[in-house]
UniProtKB/TrEMBL annotation:
<feature type="domain" description="Ketoreductase">
    <location>
        <begin position="12"/>
        <end position="193"/>
    </location>
</feature>
<comment type="similarity">
    <text>Belongs to the short-chain dehydrogenases/reductases (SDR) family.</text>
</comment>
<dbReference type="Pfam" id="PF13561">
    <property type="entry name" value="adh_short_C2"/>
</dbReference>
<protein>
    <submittedName>
        <fullName>SDR family oxidoreductase</fullName>
    </submittedName>
</protein>
<dbReference type="InterPro" id="IPR057326">
    <property type="entry name" value="KR_dom"/>
</dbReference>
<dbReference type="InterPro" id="IPR002347">
    <property type="entry name" value="SDR_fam"/>
</dbReference>
<dbReference type="InterPro" id="IPR050259">
    <property type="entry name" value="SDR"/>
</dbReference>
<dbReference type="InterPro" id="IPR036291">
    <property type="entry name" value="NAD(P)-bd_dom_sf"/>
</dbReference>
<dbReference type="InterPro" id="IPR020904">
    <property type="entry name" value="Sc_DH/Rdtase_CS"/>
</dbReference>
Amino acid sequence: MPDPQGRPGVSQRVLVTGGGRGVGAAIVRAAALAGFHVVFTVRTAAAEAEALIADIKAEKPDAAIEVRSLDLADKGAVDAFAAAIAEEPAYFGFVHNAGMSYDTLAAMVDQTKAEQLMQVNYWSFVKIAGALIRPMTRARAGRIVAIGSIAADVANAGNAIYAGSKAALAGYCRTLAIETARRGVTVNVVAPGFVDTAMLAPYAAYRANVEKQIPAGRFAAPEDVGAVVGFLISPGAAYVTGATLPVDGGLTAALAIQR
């Protein structure tokens, strides 16, 4: 694949966190099939990751793709990982997909669990982006995409900590976007609504009712999100930065969802 900015010698490597299954796997597939050299991380999805690599290579035998083990809840491991990738050839793209959820009423929050969620959803992004942003700005080319959530803007009972982490992520990305725009780096957030993945298993009993209230009439497929990320790391998105793109079937344009 040619350099998305048309410049020879610029890295085509893309890092994706949490790429073994669900939305992450769809992002890995989209990037690899577009010709990027994809490095993705997993915590427990090692078997799924190997199957994903085999599947992609069956479709594109020359695909450059590799998987690395990383627990984003482990601050020390994230620090070591960030230090290591900072010494590697520059990455052109970074997609922070990995995340965890924690459902409880705001008045009943367990701080230890909340801090672990913030480490995975927010602080690990800050650390890894910090390691990659300088090489990107030196190369004057880069794409950073964070997978946020419509929960950052639309309240849902029991979702305070998760929503807060995604709101923090979006706020950080907006600032990073304006700090790096003149250096050819774009920073955007993709904010999915209800996506058909294991993370939404707790909503199974409400699914039919929820789908009736989504204007599109269905949950998103992981590929719906992966395609938007694929656009944001493509040449056509060079002038898109500081944006949050909802991928929610019109949900945030409608009235609040009711279970």
